Amino acid sequence: MEKKGNLSINSENMFPIIKKWLYSDHDIFYREVISNACDAITKIKKMDMMGEYTLPDGFKPRVDVVLNDKDKTIKIIDNGIGMTAEEVEEYINQVAFSGATDFLNKYKDKANADQIIGHFGLGFYSTFMVSDYVEIDTLSYKSDAASVHWTCDGGSDFEMKDGEKKEVGTTITLHLSDDCLEFCNEYKAREVIEKYCSFMPYEIYLSRENEEGTETIKESEKRDDDIVIEVIEPEKKEEAKSDSENKEEKKEEEKKLKIKRRPQLLNDTHPLWGKTPKDCTDEEYKEFYRKVFRDYKEPLFWIHLNMDYPFNLKGILYFPKINMEFESAEGVIKLYNNQVFIADNIKEVIPEYLMLLKGVIDCPDLPLNVSRSALQNDGFVKKISDYISKKVAEKLAGLCKTDKENYDKYWEDISPFIKYGCLKDDKFCEKMNDYILFKNLEGKYLTLPEALQINKEAEEAAAAEEAKDENGNKVEAEVVDADGNTVKTDSADNTAETKADDKEKEPRTIYYVTDEQQQSQYINMFKAQKMDAFILNHNIDVPFIQQLESKNQDIRFQRIDADLTDTFRSKTSKKAEKEFEEIEKNIGEKMKKALKNEQLVVKVEKLKDKKISSMLTVSEETRRMQDMMKMYAANGMMMGDLGMGGQTLILNANHPLVKYVMDNQDSDNVSTICEQLYDLARIQNAPLDADSMTKFIQRSNEIMMLLAK
Fold this sequence. Notes:
alpha+beta
C-alpha cells in the first residue's frame, strides 16, 4: 500500500495558525503528544475490558520518550490501541477531527468518558511547532491490521504507506527544527515533561537512544528488561575466625550488576489528590507538598477536596507559612484535567483570594478551549469556583470551632488569605464573619462576637461614675418639672441607666491600634481604665474593617487616638466647664496663630491620668480619608501634608504645665510652651515631618536653656 495526497483542512493557512497562535508555549507539544499516548492506552484497556481485545500476558502500559541529540529527534512511543490506515486517514489527515470524541460516541454506553483526555484532535499538530517534519509508525490492535508509516513536513502534503512496526501501539518521531533543539536535551525534556505530565495516569519514561551510560544494581534488583553489561563479584575477604561468622558474611554478600542505564520514570500515576482523605497520612500530605511546590517549610494545614456530584472535582489546597515582611503573599494553584496539567492560577476556577494558597485541583469536567490553556466561560465554571470557596470557609470555621488553640497559632499566617477573601467575596465574608480573629493588647485572640463584649464593663462603670465630679461627689442634674420649674435631683443612677440605654441603641465600637510604639501613651491609658483594643497593623486592615462595618451595621471600628471617650475624663462642674470654654478660646487663638493652622480645635479637659499634658486626636473619618489618599499615590506624605482637618488638641487641666499656661496666658513663654505641647501630642499620634522635627528640637533646646538659668 502506498498513498499520497493532500491533508483535508478547512483553510490553506491552518499550519501557520497552529504554529503561531494555537499554543502560547512551544514546549506544550510534549503534553499534547503524551496525552494522546495515554488516551491510546486507555482505549486498548477498554477494548480488553469489553472483550473486543485480549491484552498480552504481562502487559504494562507505558509511554517512552526517547531522545537522540545527534539525529535531532524525539520519539514518543506508546503501547496503546494503535491505528489502521483508515484511522490515520480519518484522525490525522483530516485536521481537527477528534479521535477521542469519535471513540466516545462509538462506545458511549460502555466507556467512562472522564478517562479520555483528548477533546479536539489538534494536539498532534502541535508537534509541527518544533519540527521540520514528523513521522508516525503505528500498528492497530485489530488482528488483520497492517502497520502504517506516515510522514509530513508541516505543509499540506503527506505521505502514507505500509510500515514495519511489529508491536501494537504508536511511535511518533519528531525531526526538530534547528531553533528547537533544546527539546531533545535530556534536562530540558525532563523539566518540561515533569511540568505538564507529572501525574498522568500511565508511567512515562525518559531515555536517550543508543544510551551509553550505565548504573550498578544489586542482583536481586534486576528486572526482566535490564540489559546486563557486567557481573561484579563481591570482594573476597579473609576467612572469618569462626564458621558462624563466615556463614553470616556470605549471607550478606551479593553480586552486583552493571547494567545499561534504565529509562527514568518521570511521573506519579496515583497522585495523592485521587485518594480519599481518610487513606492519606499527614506525612504523605507534607511530602506531596514538598515534591510539587519544592517548598521545604511545612504547610500550616490543608484542605482535601473530593467531590463527585454535581461535578467531578478533586484536589488539595495548602495554607503555607508566609513571612509577610520578606516574602510576597503569592501562591500557586495548579489546575489539572484528568491528571494532565493545564495551567497555574486560572482565575475563572480559583477564587482570586485563594491564589495566595498553594495547591492542586483536578476537574475532568472543565470546559477547556482548543489549546486547553484557558477555559470556555460559562456558569459551570462559576459553580466550581463557588464550591471551592465554600469548602475553604467550612474548613476554617470547623478549625476555629474544634481546634481553637491551633487556629490561634495559625492566624497571623492565614489572616491575609481570609481578609483578602472577605474583601473579594461577599459570601465568603458572611461565612467567616464569626471566625475572624483579633489580637488584643495582651496577645490573646478573640473572635468578632467576643471582641464586641470586651469593653462593656469598663464603659458601664464609666457611665455610673459620670455623674460624679473629680472629688467623687455626685453631681446634681437640673430637671424641668411638669410646671416648668427647675428642680435638682440626685442623678447618678438615672444618668447611668440613661447612658446604658443609649449605648444599646448605638453601634458597638471596637478600638484598634496600628502602631504599638507610636500609640503607646493611648495604650497605657486604655490599660489603666481596664479597656482593651486590637492590633491591626497591616495595609489590608483598613479596607478590611470597612468591609466588616458594611456587613455589620451594629459595629464600628475606631483607632484608640481618634477620640477621647468619657471613660478617660474626670467629671467637672458646670462652673469649671464655663471657665475652660473661655480658656480654650484664648489659648486656641494663640495656638492657631503660632502654628498657622486655623482648622485646629483646642479643648481643655480634666483627664483621669494626671501625667499626660496634651493629646492629639484625629477623627476616624479624617484618618481613613488620609490613608486612602496615601494609598492612591499621595507619594507617602505625612499626615500634616494631607491637611490639618479633623485634628483636636486636648490639654489636660490636671497637668501642672497646662495649669501654668491657664494661669499665665500673657507670659512670654506661653506661645513656646503651647507649640511644644502641640508637637508632644503629635509625636504620640504620628511621626513628625522633617521641618516640624527640626523646629521641635530647636524649641526643646531653648526650653532646656530656660531651665538651666
